[in-house]
Every structure is written in structure tokens, then in C-alpha cells.
Design a protein that fits this description.
By secondary structure, this protein is mainly β. Helix content is 4%, strand content 63%. The chain has one domain. The chain has a 7-stranded antiparallel sheet with strand order 1-2-3-4-5-6-7. The longest helix has 4 residues. It is elongated, with a radius of gyration of 14 Å.
Length: 112
């Protein structure tokens, strides 16, 4: 069963989408394997603010709650403003995340 969460993250993309982003967690779901693997499913909303407008995604993240916080995620583009109006697409990322720091690499395609 999902639980409400208070997980927020801020960062900056580089490459094709080289702009700041802000993530707000919506749900955190443990599985029967969480006690063994430390993995949970985190969902939330991400906002990427660019000079052309704002790009909004819904994110589904598998996050290891131990060690360096390994994660893998799929970010579905749901909308945008300005130059991103009507945007669709998917970004995928993997990396590490802890309370103090993190980093990742992403790939994907955004269509407008």
C-alpha cells in the first residue's frame, strides 16, 4: 500500500535538456522483497524549468534505501508550457541518490 512521502530533490540536467529540475515525491511503496533488497518504488512529479518553458514529468523510480542509494527511473512527459506545450516523451535515468548528494545519466526522447 502506498504511503505519503516527503521526499524532494533538486538538480540540473546537462546535455539536450541542460536545465534545473525539482522533484516532489507522491508515494513510496515497499514490496515483499524490500527487507532483503532495500528497494522501494517511489513515484512523484518533476518540473524542468528551461528558457523555452516548463516541462512536467511523472516519475516512477526504483530506489535502494541503503548504501549509496542506487536508482533507476522512467519519467513520462505529461505536459509543458511555452515551447514545451504539447510535449510528449519518456526519459530514463540511473544513478545514485542520498540525502547529501547524487548523480545520474539520462537518455530519452521528447517530441513537440
Amino acid at each position: 500500500m502506498p504511503v505519503g512521502v516527503q521526499i524532494c530533490a533538486a538538480g540540473s540536467y546537462s546535455g539536450g535538456v541542460a536545465e534545473p529540475s525539482a522533484f516532489v515525491g507522491i508515494s513510496l511503496i515497499q514490496t515483499v522483497d524490500t527487507p532483503t533488497t532495500g528497494m522501494v518504488l517511489l513515484t512523484g512529479n518533476n518540473q524542468i524549468t528551461t528558457k523555452a518553458g516548463v516541462l512536467l514529468t511523472k516519475d516512477a523510480i526504483m530506489l535502494r534505501t541503503t548504501g549509496v542509494g542506487d536508482f533507476a527511473e522512467v519519467d513520462t512527459v505529461i505536459s509543458g508550457t511555452g515551447g514545451w506545450a504539447g510535449a510528449t516523451g519518456v526519459l530514463r535515468a540511473q544513478g545514485t541518490f542520498t540525502v547529501a548528494s547524487g548523480g545520474s545519466e539520462y537518455v530519452g526522447q521528447i517530441c513537440i
